[in-house]
Design brief:
With about 250 residues, the chain is an alpha/beta fold. It is about 30% helix and about 25% strand.
Length: about 250
């Protein structure tokens, strides 16, 4: 995601969402069990996942409602990627794809009619994929210090499960909704373990894409981000596992 951080006259546009490993696209293509030639991406942001799938030879149509993000995406993706400025809810039935996927973006979509819209964009037997996961500070002492700095502003920065699934349950959202949907079958949840190192500034940049911080008034955001950056070491280690949910559109839908 693209965002602006910093107070005063100098505001910098930064893209600090971690990228995705090649293992992810291999997992999706293996699950499909047949060639994936076309894909629709929901909420493409600045195109990290777009580049991954396009690099694997998939003809990607990347949709994104934010003009600034879409402009940034166009700078970095292959010329063959089609870009559409639109929210998922504004997409109209038309072309159908072998794959529809969302990279850390599905929770931004409206729940009403979500799965019927996804199914309507997929060929029978086509694959839906959702993947992401919030990076967590690996150093518990650093995490505690950030939590203490955050406390006057936010009780928590975690995104609650949209359907109320408890954190400890084996199948997490959106797999839980996919299991209940009449349009999908063969629901699978996989975790790709990942560890990252990030600069303190880039980590604060990542935080500024998190919903809980976005909902704070701008002065409170800036104050909190300055405080967090001051208490962080120069670089931070992150546990950044990617949770992948896969499902197949029923052929008879």
């Amino acid at each position: 995601m693209l965002f602006a951080i910093g107070a005063g006259p100098q505001v910098t546009a930064v893209d600090d969402q971690p990228g995705y490993p090649a293992e992810l696209v291999d997992l999706v293509l293996t699950y499909a069990g047949r060639p994936i030639r076309t894909a629709l991406e929901i909420g493409a942001g600045t195109g990290k996942a777009t580049r991954l799938f396009a690099g694997a030879g998939v003809a990607v149509t990347a949709t994104e409602p934010d003009a600034a993000m879409l402009a940034e995406l166009r700078k970095h993706v292959p010329a063959g990627v089609e870009t559409v400025r639109a929210a998922f809810e504004d997409l109209r039935p038309g072309a159908r794809y072998h794959l529809v996927y969302a990279a850390a973006a599905l929770h931004w979509t409206a729940p009403e009619g979500r799965w019927s819209r996804v199914a309507g964009l997929l060929e029978p037997g086509g694959v839906f994929a959702s993947f992401g996961g919030p990076p967590q500070l690996a150093d518990l002492a650093v995490a505690d210090a950030v939590r203490a700095a955050r406390a006057p502003f936010l009780e928590s920065d975690e995104i609650p499960s949209p359907d109320g699934t408890p954190p400890g349950q084996a199948m997490q959202w959106p797999g839980t909704e996919l299991q209940r949907s009449e349009s999908f079958t063969h629901v699978q949840q996989t975790v790709i373990e990942r560890r990252l190192t990030m600069s303190a500034r880039d980590y604060v940049g990542y935080l500024s894409t998190v919903l809980a911080y976005l909902e704070l008034p701008t002065p409170a955001q800036e104050q909190l981000f300055r405080q967090i950056e001051q208490i962080l070491p120069e670089t931070v280690e992150l546990c950044a596992d990617i949770v992948v949910h896969l499902a197949r559109r029923r052929p008879d839908q």
